[in-house]
């Protein structure tokens, strides 16, 4: 049975804390994270040598700190994420590297920080090798390889193949290795990630492509990374990934390489969504109920400025109603759930391509809360100030206690960095 089979249309609490108490604590909309769910997900990855968190999935400092305390290392894709990792308590250097900078380019600020802190780099473009070599002598790097194919739950999350900007094209690997030799750069790691939501068949293809690439690089390889993209169940019946089988696949790959190279090869995995998606909830208040022709609408105080996945990919999220009267059973009806933004696409129940759909949800009233579930990945981190809406608050529940780990923005926060030119 998958975790998604347990999603209910009615809920009263999150991690044992009354939803209404959480709304009173931080206002709505508010993201709520259950630390115990992240810790349980992390425990399933214990067989891997290194679990490296792709913090772009959920970058709140409290979440990064929680995972750091659980022994997780971290991936950073920008100068800001480097700063977050350092602020969350990560050391800059170590073996294995506590922080790896992974990108397809160096912008000026990121390169400066990499040099300043001596960070390990996962290079997604050949040009990065020369740019790093100009500043650092004898650098060890990881290469992110595009194996020529990709997969994902949406074309927009497919990170492999000729239409993807990510990684070094597999057929150019030998040229890149020659360039690394010329610059005195040592390739000590390989990384492959083909998309979010990949299945076991595609993951097997990635492992095979990784093995071929590693043989081409040779025995300087000490680490291979299986990347991320572990599928997350969002709907009832969605299967959970078989982590044991996944590990066995990659362990066999690294074992063969270690035997050929004559030294151990470290195996990393780079989960983001897998660790945080099911731990997160977006609590929002129903502010209006209306009918438009055949469609009934619940209009809530969260919009796509708070959760962009439905408008970006037509992503499905489970939803539940928090009954004010404590009811454990209510009749359902088909309803469209939308937000407050001045934008027709501000609909949480839509399919890819922008097609509005309805959802069977309990009959509710204005003032009750609606919870958008499985929202802990690519939720708050994609928040925006569209329509001059403040960023939502975030709450972490750990050991039975809720903590506000980001307060809701104010209008003053929105305006703080803006100014009007002085005029005569």
For this entry, give a set of tags:
eight-stranded parallel β-barrel; alpha/beta; 27% helix; globular; nine-stranded mixed beta sheet; 424 residues; 12 helices
Task: Give structural notes.
This protein has 424 residues and is of the alpha/beta class. Helices cover 27% and strands 25% of the residues. It has helices spanning 19-26, 35-43, 61-69, 79-87, 108-117, 127-133, 173-183, 200-217, 243-261, 273-276, 309-313, 411-415; strands at 13-14, 17-18, 30-34, 50-54, 73-76, 99-103, 120-123, 140-146, 168-169, 186-191, 223-225, 266-269, 280-292, 295-300, 319-322, 332-338, 350-351, 355-356, 359-362, 369-373, 393-398, 401-406. The strands form four sheets. Strands 3, 13, 14, 15, 16, 19, 20, 21 and 22 form a nine-stranded mixed sheet that branches. It is globular and about 65 Å long.
Summarize the structure.
The chain is an alpha/beta fold.
Write the layout of secondary structure elements.
Layout: E1 13-14, E2 17-18, H1 19-26, E3 30-34, H2 35-43, E4 50-54, H3 61-69, E5 73-76, H4 79-87, E6 99-103, H5 108-117, E7 120-123, H6 127-133, E8 140-146, E9 168-169, H7 173-183, E10 186-191, H8 200-217, E11 223-225, H9 243-261, E12 266-269, H10 273-276, E13 280-292, E14 295-300, H11 309-313, E15 319-322, E16 332-338, E17 350-351, E18 355-356, E19 359-362, E20 369-373, E21 393-398, E22 401-406, H12 411-415
In which range does the helix fraction lie?
Answer: 25-40%
Rg computed from alpha carbons, rounded to a whole number of angstroms: 23 Å
Low-pLDDT runs? 1-5, 151-160
Number of β-strand runs? 22
Distance between the termini: 70 Å
Mean pLDDT: 93
Tally of alpha and pi helices: 12
Strand content: 15-25%
Largest sheet: 9 strands, mixed
* Global morphology: globular
Alpha-beta classification: alpha/beta
